Amino acid sequence: MKKRNKYREIEDFLADESFRLWMRSKNDMAGWEDWTLDHPKRAKLVEEARLWLLAMKVPEHDLTQEQLDDALQNTWLKIEQKEQSPKRENKLIKVWNDGWFGKIAAVLVLGLLSFYAYTNYFTAANTDFYQEQIVAHAEADGLLEQINNSNKPQIINLSDGSSVLLQPKSKLSYPKVFMGNERKVYLSGEAFFEISKNPQKPFFVHANEVVTKVVGTSFRIKAYTNDSDVEVLVRTGKVKVNSEKAYSKSSQKEIVLLPNQALRFERKNQTFKKITDITTDKSISSSVRSIEQLSFDFTDIPVSQILKTIELAYSVEIDYPKQELKKCHLTTSLNDQPLPEKLKIICKSIGNNSSYTMNGNQITILSKGCN
Amino acid sequence: MSLKNHILHTGVLDDNKLWQDLKAGDEKAFSTLFKRYYGNLIQYGNSFSPHAEKIQDCVQDVFTDIWIYRNSLSDTVVVKAYLLSCVRKRIVRLQQRDKVFNKATSMDAVTFLLDFSVEQQLISDELTVAKVEHLNKLLNILPSRQKEALFLKYHHGLNIDEIAAILNVNYQSASNLLHRALVNIRKEWNINVTLLMVLMMNWV
């Protein structure tokens, strides 16, 4: 600290980090106050330097933690897109050079492609994006596919704890386990998503020409191959929607949707239309599913009734010890939670080591009654 | 002394360590540096352009390139100065490109639009308020580059070499920019402060 004894100009003070710290936050770690009082002559310079600092305030940036996380996530996304574009070509070439195996694969892919081209040209006017994407990604990601040919919604639990309620005549392709920095699924038809929160691994739903990105939230997508529109409707949280084209080019024309906002993609003109008041939109409000209307806010409600609400919302059957849970009431908010999370919270609230098992749409709760 | 110094500069030491880790492919180090400087860089970027979204894109692109080309990054950088410099260069490039497309005549570098404000909370008496507000006005009408140099030096604590590199001028010019800003203001301010004090005396 001998250095400061030679300070003659206010610049010297302004440039001294410990001095700025003292002036701005009263943090006098370097003993500036004593030093100034030691020598009356110093006081004048110190006072002037102080005025300078007071007149040079720079506003603190006002980013929230959430904005920061969003920005970081978006940057990883950009990195991935930039890294992947050259790599993917290399991989393709390698497979090609891998001898007879590669040749067979190529023939198969070609065969598949021409089959779909055939069905597309001669059956439907709209492109079957789902199949194209599945073909494009199946080799790398090892996708599982669930098709709902029944007339009731089906529940699908994903490896990250998210749940998807798949409507009739719809299909979803998803990896057995989500690898890498993001979670990606492919939808054809309609489904309601409840995504478990994980800012490090954004969740993407590819549905026809539309890509929807979320961190943790619930929303519905309607994207039937033969429909003229694609619809995304948000119930909780925030999602970002992009066109498949813009997404693959990593251009940033995302549209942000908040709860009870919707977006319609008109496939004919390739345009987006944002719907801020869904109650006025006939097509959307008429197709609201029970799961979206039910409230999962429970205040001192019997467990049996809570489970009934879940049965209704997810089209599942829940088996539970009715006698033991007769007198149990719970107060809890389960909105914005995927089905497994809801069940976990309920079991935990009941206590007594209660647990659940799930097999397709059959859920069994094991419990010896509540505390 | 050495302890105090150490505490004051841990930020810097830490930066270098994180930078080395980032170069070695450590995603956590990247994220930490990102979170540490993103806000500062957005603020700096916004002082050149009213288009907040473009600036966000621009800062994120800077980080994207840093990660992708991490193997060819220099070992010895002052991380903060380097990041500020990258962001500024990118904005200059973008604006020049826009200007080419818009066929505008001026190809000047960017203009620093940020205004300093007054630290009201730390002032209790009126005379000081008047003095500081006056000084603040003088600071804010400085030429763009002088103001930017002051911002980089006294807000971000960069040294003259680093400022020269960012403003793309030599050491002497950067030093002159800073010096001139202070000398001019002090001259005008001192005259006015004397006047001000006389006035205030009369009021009381």
Walk me through the structure.
The complex is a heterodimer of chains A (371) and B (204). By secondary structure, chain A is an alpha+beta fold. Chain A is built from twelve helices and 18 strands. In chain A, strands 1, 2, 3, 4, 5, 6, 7, 8, 9, 10, 11, 12 and 13 form a 13-stranded mixed β-sheet that branches. In chain A, strands 15-18-17 form a three-stranded mixed β-sheet, covered by helices on one side. Chain A has a two-stranded antiparallel ribbon with strand order 14-16. In chain A, strand 12 and strand 13 form a beta hairpin. In chain A, helix 3 crosses helix 4. Chain A is elongated and about 90 Å long. Chain B is an all-alpha fold and 204 residues long. Chain B has two domains: 101 residues, Rna Polymerase Sigma Factor, Chain: A (Orthogonal Bundle); 84 residues, Winged helix-like DNA-binding domain superfamily/Winged helix DNA-binding domain (Arc Repressor Mutant, subunit A), CATH 1.10.10.10. Chain B has eight helices and no strands. The interface between A and B is large, with 34 and 46 residues.
Query: Beta-sheet strand percentage of chain B?
Result: under 5%
Strand content of chain A: 25-35%
Look at the structure and give the mean pLDDT of chain B: 82
Distance between the termini of chain B: 46 Å
CATH topology of the largest domain in chain B: Rna Polymerase Sigma Factor, Chain: A
Give the tally of β-strands of chain B: 0
